[in-house]
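Marked as duplicate of an earlier ticket. Keeping the data here for the record.
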Amino acid sequence: MNYNSLEEFLSDYNPNDYERLSMTCDIVIFSVSDQESSNYRKTSRKMMSVLLVKRDEYPYKDMWCLPGGFINPSTETLEDAAKRILKRETNLSDIYLEQLYTFDGIKRDPRMRVVSCSYVALIDKKKLKQKVVNASWFDIIDIEEKDGIVSITVSNGDETFTFSIKKTLRKYSTDRYDFSTVKNNNLAFDHDLVILSGIERIRNKINYTDIVFNMMGEYFTLGELQQVYEVILGKKLLDPAFRRIIADKVEKTDKMKTGEGHRPSRLFRYRKR
């Protein structure tokens, strides 16, 4: 039907004529953990960690999921909702937050049609002042890719599990894959796909941006920083190559790190631009 004015259209408009869907905001919160070494002379091993929450209601009761929630359509933008969820889960604000991807699988939520706009957040765990109910940091202890299947193993010390995702390169695209679940018995919804998307986003940006420093404390040794780069990238870096990457990103301080059973190490900090 053709209308002659907005008023005429609105007088005839019935929202029940349109199918509805709900929208959520899910956040992959990454940080860095120290895995203590049994040898006091060795520096603690760095691990990339993701914050997961155990669901206490259906659907997916007793399974792990990413922090998230429904968006209030009358009062919130997507970013408003993401910041609210971050504040609720970490009691932190003004931290790194980047929109990741929209997940719109038709059957991703058994309750109704739900579309999720996901975000990546990077934080320094040492700044956390509260313990989130039913939440736990899971170290990403292994990422293995073989024949287009990525298997990710995570552990919080009490519980360890692996989920696997198939990567298929989109036709006519060089930088975006379609992900599909191969094995997932522990994560709710399609949050296995969200986590892998977040990991790949951070890996793609770490060399040409300064995002890694959002997970670092104010002071760090170059060895600690190199470990963080290596655990995120999933590979060892030659010292000269690493020094070139971070040459204009850090500055030396007059502080030293001592008391770990080896020679004192010079501390550096992020060079703000």
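See parent ticket for discussion. The CA atoms of residues 219 and 269 lie 5 Å apart.
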